[in-house]
Amino acid sequence: MRASPSIVPRDRLDRDIYLVLEDFGARAGCAWRETDEQDTDVETVICDLISGQYAYPVRIVAFNAIEGWARDATAEVATAVAQRADEEALDISPALDAFITANAGDTRRQLALPLRTRP
Fold first, then answer.
1. Which residues contact 17 (CB under 8 A, 6 or more apart)?
2. pTM for the complete prediction?
3. 119 domain-assigned
4. Which of 51, 52, 66, 87 suits a disulfide with 14, CB 3.0-4.6 Å?
């Protein structure tokens, strides 16, 4: 008996997937947000966090099932969100600010001093 080729392209699953754990409050608790497959890349997650798609993010996990690894990506994503918000002077929600404060690495930047030319 011949093996049939898979109808699912292998490269579709061979990528890093990011999922967000969100706190829905005392009564509902925390849950992993249901997300469309195409919206699980890191760039989309960063944009969704900034735009307020997640009210109270708690943790972000990255994994690649084909490669067989998973890791906590919370600090990495929080730092990226903080840098983007700083660079683009974006307004962020108090909940997202608390998430960044709790999880981001040092996002402070050295400000450039204005150069003065001698007269």
1. 40, 41, 62, 63, 64, 65
2. 0.76
3. no
4. 66
